[in-house]
Amino acid sequence: MNDYLQLKKKIQQRVEALEDVIRTLETPGIVDENLASRWRTHLTRVQGSLRDSLLRVAVVGSVKSGKSTLINTLAGRDLLKRGAGIITAFITRLRTNGDVGGWVELKPWSQVMEELN
């Protein structure tokens, strides 16, 4: 977890450096105000993600490649079913706060496509 926190700190430092660059480019009018505003919007989103204490991990792979086994191992408990046949052939979201348990949320296809884009 310490490596994760260090990574978040490095990202925050880079966000601050990019904000300085935007200010530097705006002052003499090198970049358009609308473009600078869009950059700031993206940096604000990054900062919001950095403040979020939830760690998100995406696991993608072919059928029967061990995705559920990997997630269960990372979580330290059996949260996802494993076994013969295709058990978790849909997008699954797990969320746990350290307590044994969790739940599965199925995202609608429109949300999946929006997040991919």
What does the model show?
With 117 residues, this protein is mainly α. The protein contains four helices and no strands. Helix 1 runs antiparallel to helix 2 (33-51). The protein is elongated. 0% of the residues are buried.
Draw up the topology in text.
Elements: H1 2-26, H2 33-51, H3 67-75, H4 109-116
Helix pairs in contact: 1-2
Short description:
52% of the residues lie in helices and 0% in strands. The chain has 117 residues and is mostly helical.
| Share in helix | 40-55%
Helix-strand pattern, N to C? HHHH
Alpha-beta classification: mainly alpha
What is the count of DSSP helices, taking H or I runs of 4+ residues?
4
Main sheet characteristics: none
CA-to-CA gap between the ends?
A: 29 Å
Form type:
elongated
Mean pLDDT: 81
Uncertain runs: none
- Assembly status: single chain
Radius of gyration (CA) equals 20 Å
Number of strands: 0
Strand content: under 5%
